[in-house]
Design a protein that fits this description.
Blueprint: H1 8-20, E1 31-34, E2 39-41, E3 55-58, H2 61-66, E4 70-71, H3 80-98, H4 105-112, H5 116-127, H6 131-148, H7 153-160, H8 165-176, H9 182-186, E5 191-199, E6 202-208, E7 213-218, H10 222-232, E8 237-240, H11 246-257, H12 273-283, E9 291-292, H13 293-299, H14 306-314, E10 327-328, H15 341-365
Helix pairs in contact: 3-4, 3-6, 4-5, 6-7, 6-8, 13-14
Bound molecules: zinc ion (ZN).
Residues 41, 45, 47, 72, 74-75 line the site of zinc ion.
Length: 366
């Protein structure tokens, strides 16, 4: 049965849309069939325009197929190929997400059954990024989640599926550097409990979220310490909680008085990925030892970033627990310290004294 004849003005509008390759014609959606080829197309099909006399118009797929035409592979009027492509890309994304190490482009393309360059274009069309960027994003998110959950860097790195730590740090600056949101860093919508106390080095202020200690400052007037905390977490609600933080304060004050062991407190470190990387590296410096800024930069796999490392040390929000006082200049000088060079000197002297004492004791035991 032939399709109902279309008004001739509609046909001429449709024909003009075919000639114009107008994918969204003003006359509304339709399909056209090319009688000499047996296929039907969407307006906008990139194939060469047929002759008018070989062209028939249809309102929908059912009508075109009923008339014996099959879907054009190029313009894919049924969306079958698009669906297949999307499915192939979805499968590739799942493969990347499940993988321990990033699958090669060749492996992904082979699995999907496409040529490499074609698969790359397809992947980019569907996801907006290359498979490599997608994989790096997946791993950055895994790492971020692990670090937020409090995993140590080395474990988080292994768990995130990166090949090596140094590799992470290459990627980190590009992908992770921006991810911990400024909102989280600013403490938006959060409560920070604080406790003021006295220590062997003057006033002490400890701040903590539900997750852990987020601020330790000392050796300044209490108002100045609190001002520093509020400036670092401008969006947080700050409330006094002397009782709740009594044990934490006791540990910090004891460390200041006599650094018998590393100050191990649950921490909630807020900073950029780079800053956190530096702060994690600081936590690995054993009590009684020091590192140079250059040494620390090399340790995080970014030897050129000496000044950025120094800046990150200066931004350390939890002095003592993240021992930025254990970083010294190349010639061993004490350089700067957020809480004053004399305190840095006193802390380092106290730590090396403890270290010597421990060594002496262990020799006695032997
Ligand atoms: Zn077509």
């Amino acid at each position: 049965m032939p399709e109902a004849p279309m008004p001739s003005d509609t046909d001429s509008l449709r024909w003009q849309a075919v000639l114009d390759r107008d994918a969204t014609p003003a006359c509304g959606p339709f399909l056209y069939a090319v009688t000499t080829q047996g296929v039907y197309c969407r307006p906008g099909c990139p194939s060469r325009a047929p002759l008018r006399r070989n062209t028939r118009f249809f309102a929908d797929i059912a009508a075109a197929e009923q008339a014996g035409f099959r879907a054009c592979k190029r313009c894919d009027p049924k969306g079958e190929r698009a669906a297949l492509h999307a499915e192939a890309v979805r499968a590739a994304c799942a493969m990347i997400e499940a993988a321990e190490t990033m699958p090669s482009l060749a492996a992904l393309a082979d699995r999907a059954g496409y040529a490499r360059h074609h698969f790359l274009r397809l992947f980019r069309d569907v996801t907006g990024v290359t498979p490599r960027s997608y994989a790096e994003g997946v791993r950055a998110r895994r790492l971020q989640a692990a670090l937020s959950a409090g995993d140590r860097v080395a474990e988080a790195v292994a768990g995130a599926g990166f090949g090596s730590e140094s590799r992470v740090y290459e990627d980190t600056s590009r992908h992770l550097g921006m991810t911990p949101g400024a909102a989280r860093r600013g403490g938006a919508g959060e409560v920070i409990r604080i406790a003021h106390a006295e220590s062997a080095m003057g006033p002490l202020l400890v701040g903590a979220t539900e997750k852990g200690v987020c601020f330790i400052g000392f050796a300044e007037p209490p108002e100045a310490l609190e001002g520093d905390l509020r400036a670092r977490f401008p969006k947080a609600h700050v409330e006094a909680a002397d009782d709740a933080l009594a044990e934490t304060v006791r540990q910090v004050a004891a460390f200041i008085a006599e650094p018998a062991a590393a100050l191990r407190l649950p921490l909630d470190l807020r900073g950029t990925a780079f800053q956190r990387q530096v702060w994690e590296a600081l936590q690995r410096i054993p009590l009684g030892e020091t590192r140079t800024y250059a040494g620390l930069a090399a340790e995080i796999g970014n030897p050129a970033a000496v000044r950025a490392v120094a800046r990150a040390c200066a931004r350390n929000p939890v002095s003592l627990a993240v021992p930025c006082h254990r970083v010294v200049g190349a010639d061993g000088d004490l350089t700067g310290y957020r809480w004053g060079v004399p305190r840095k000197k006193a802390l380092l002297e106290g730590e090396s004294r403890m270290q010597r004492k421990r060594l002496t004791q262990s020799q006695k035991i032997e």
